Amino acid sequence: MCLTLHYTEVSTQRTEQQLRFSVNTDYAYTGIQHDRTGSPLAEISSGIENYVHSTSLGHRAYLQGLTGYYNQLEFPYLNELQDMGQIVSIESATLYLYPLAGSYNQTNQLPEDIRLYITNENNVLEDYVYGSDGVTVQTGNLTVDEVSGRDTYYSFDLTEFIRNNLGTWGINRQKLLLNMNSSDAATTFNQVIFTNDPDNERQCRLDIRFKTYNEQQ
């Protein structure tokens, strides 16, 4: 591979010239290699369908730029809300994501910008998750507990997403994909380890507030 620059040299006559820039194999970036042998991620292989549930990773989810680790979020029991009343109205829905305590510090800081993307059943990206104005892309709203770190979390307003997916199933049910913004995902090793241990007080969760309406007998 090379870059060839064609130009014209003008003196007593015009002469077509060219410069060839070859790849410097000592410094050229060609890719990232990583070895996860002996780590919780050792059995993860590349491919959209080769996802691993967080319960198989010690109730943790790993997100990292350049290495291709991202998270897929689904809400398989969402339709159970419909059993709460004859009519169910979603008032608000907020997703809280808690980084694992001790997995970050002053040197290895949490990224301030992470994104949720809406996908279909085949993991094809359809859109971003926007704010309440319908225009601004949400970036995780990172809240940092500088004292104890216990209440450090990212949060996303999923009200519209939950409203749109309540009562859907199969090919009509959308998913969420969590990743860095496109720039950080392609140029940095920024990372987050999320914890989802049901035995811990601080764990990833979806808080939904809803109203129910029932016909008076």
Feature tags:
11 strands, 3-stranded antiparallel beta sheet, mainly beta, 4-stranded antiparallel beta sheet, 217 residues, Jelly Rolls, 2 helices
Could you explain how this protein is built, in words?
- The protein has 217 residues and is mainly beta.
- The protein has a single domain (57-213), classed as Jelly Rolls, CATH 2.60.120.
- The chain is built from 2 helices and 11 strands; from the N terminus they run ββββββββαβαββ.
- A 4-stranded antiparallel β-sheet has the order 4-9-6-7. Strands 8-5-11 form a 3-stranded antiparallel β-sheet. The chain has a two-stranded antiparallel sheet with strand order 1-2.
- Strand 6 and strand 7 form a beta hairpin.
- The model has no long low-confidence stretch (mean pLDDT 89).
Largest sheet: 4 strands, antiparallel
Helicity range of the residues?
Answer: under 10%
Molecular shape: elongated
CATH class: Mainly Beta
Helix/strand structural class:
mainly beta
**What is the overall number of helices?**
2
Task: Let me know the average pLDDT.
Answer: 89
Rg value? 24 Å
H/E topology pattern:
EEEEEEEEHEHEE
- For this structure, the CATH topology is Jelly Rolls
Low-pLDDT residue spans: none
Beta content comes to 25-35%
Q: Strand order across the biggest sheet?
A: 4-9-6-7
